Structure formats: structure tokens, C-alpha cells
Amino acid sequence: MFSGGGSNQYARLKTNLRLALNRLKLLEKKKTELAQKARREIAEYLATGKEERARIRVEHIIREDYLVEAMEMLEMYCDLLLARFGLLEQMKTMDEGLEEAITSIIWATPRLQADIGELKVITEQFTAKFGKQYVAAVKENQFNTVNDKLIRKLSVQAPKRLLVEQYLIEIAKSHKISYEPDPRVMMEEGGTGTLLDFGMDNSRNLGPGGGTGGFGGGNVGGGGGGFAAPPIATEPPPPIYPERGQRFQDYENSSLDHSMEVRHSCVVIVAPSYPDFK
């Protein structure tokens, strides 16, 4: 809790949350405009055959895109705290509905306070409310309450080569420039080597027993000619940055298993027959 002048401290906290919210929006807009300009420069590099230089510039764009996504998340957290500010004023202990927002802001402050000075002031006010030991532990994410996606977006690791190639492919496509991605990168990191055509007619890939060729069975399949169906992937490549969906998947699977158990354990009740009184 704030030691003295609680109402003034809370008013100051609300003001800084609003200031941080506005500054985040301005920075997001500025960085998005700069990223568009950088994409045009990369397209020029690709058009003139300077692919290695384009790859270096793409890594910078990827980091800037991640930074913008992180700022959008912090903007959402500031908005959430403002919407639930009454709860923030009244709570004596950390509320589960606000814990992720508060701890994520505290964790991100050392990484963004150079551009967003209001975050430093907000963290200082959280320190006055929750204590130095708690804030120090949050900065190390000892409670595992900081958003995992935010941690990934603000990490200092270099982007994967496959992601760099995918960026180059999209930039070349949007600027109508011919570009052949590095086949070694596309294959060794789970890529297919070519862009997937999501507009392909699904009737061409009907699998065994029904299709237009390549597989035995079906009206036209079997022998040689016709359109050869593409091979069926045994397992899709894992995502580059997996999202927090495993918990829901586990819950869904457990719910499905439970429903199957209920169905198998059902007992059919037959109504008794009564004699026909005459």
C-alpha cells in the first residue's frame, strides 16, 4: 500500500498510465511507418541482387515488428488497469485478474523505459504499493506471471533464418519482384522450399481411393497420366514461436475423453411392461 497521501499517489498512477498509453500509440505509429519505408529499401536491394544486404535489413525489421507487438500488448495492459482502476485502489493483495498486466509492465520497464519514461514512474509507484522485494522478483519473472508472448517479443535472440526468408518472400511478392529463397534454409528448418498455394483446388488432393490421379483407386487414378496428387505430409512443421494454446488443447482432449467415458457408461433403462387388465 502507498504509505502516505494514498489518493494523490493513485491519481498520479492513473495519470501516468494514460500518458504511457498515448506514448505507446505514437511510437507504434512511428515505427510502423518506418518499417514500411524499410521494406521499400529491401525491395530495392532484392531488385538489384543485393540479397545478403537485404537479409541483414530484414532482421532489423523483424525486431522492430516484435517491438511494436510488445508495445501493443503493454498498451492493452495499461488500458486494462485504467478500466479496473477502482479494483486496483481497493485491493489489499495481488488480484489474479490484474496480476499479469501489472507484472508484465514491471518486467518490460527496464527494456523500454528509454523510449517510454512513464513506465519507469509506473513501476516506481508499483514498488511503493507492493514492495521492493516483490518488484525485484517480478523483474526476474520468479512467479511466472509475465506474459510468455511478451517475453519472446522482447528477447534479444536473432530471428530464425526461415523467418528471414519468409519476410523476404512476402516483401518481394508485395513489390512484384522475382526472388528465389535459399532452398537449404527452407528445407533444414521445416520449410517446403516453395510457397504454398492455398488457392489450389482441393479436389486434386483427395488421397487414396478417390482423386484425379497419382493414387490407386478412384475414377481416374491408378495408372499413370492425369494430375499427380502432391504427397501428404506426415506431420506439419512446428510453429516458429508457439503460442499459449497447449492448455486449451489439453483441456479439450480431456473433455473429449470424459465425454466418451460418459457415453460408454450410459445404462439403457427399459420401461417395465404391465399386464393388460380386462
List the helices and strands and how they pair.
Layout: H1 6-47, H2 51-83, H3 85-90, H4 96-112, H5 117-130, H6 132-139, H7 148-153, H8 161-174, H9 183-188, H10 246-264
Helix pairs in contact: 1-2, 1-5, 2-4, 2-8, 4-5, 5-6
Shape: elongated
Gyration radius from CA atoms, angstroms: 28 Å
Number of strands: 0
Strand composition percent: under 5%
Tell me the helix content.
55-70%
| Spans of at least 5 consecutive residues with low confidence | 192-278
Helix and strand content put the structural class at mainly alpha
Describe the biggest sheet? none
Compute the number of helices. Answer: 10
What is the averaged pLDDT score? 77
What is the straight-line distance between the termini?
A: 84 Å
Order of helices and strands: HHHHHHHHHH
Polypeptide structure, described:
Helix 2 crosses helix 4, helix 2 packs across helix 8 (161-174) and helix 4 packs across helix 5 (117-130). 19% of the residues are buried. The protein is elongated, with a radius of gyration of 28 Å. The longest helix has 42 residues, at 6-47. It contains ten helices and no strands. It is mainly α and 278 residues long. The N and C termini lie far apart (84 Å).
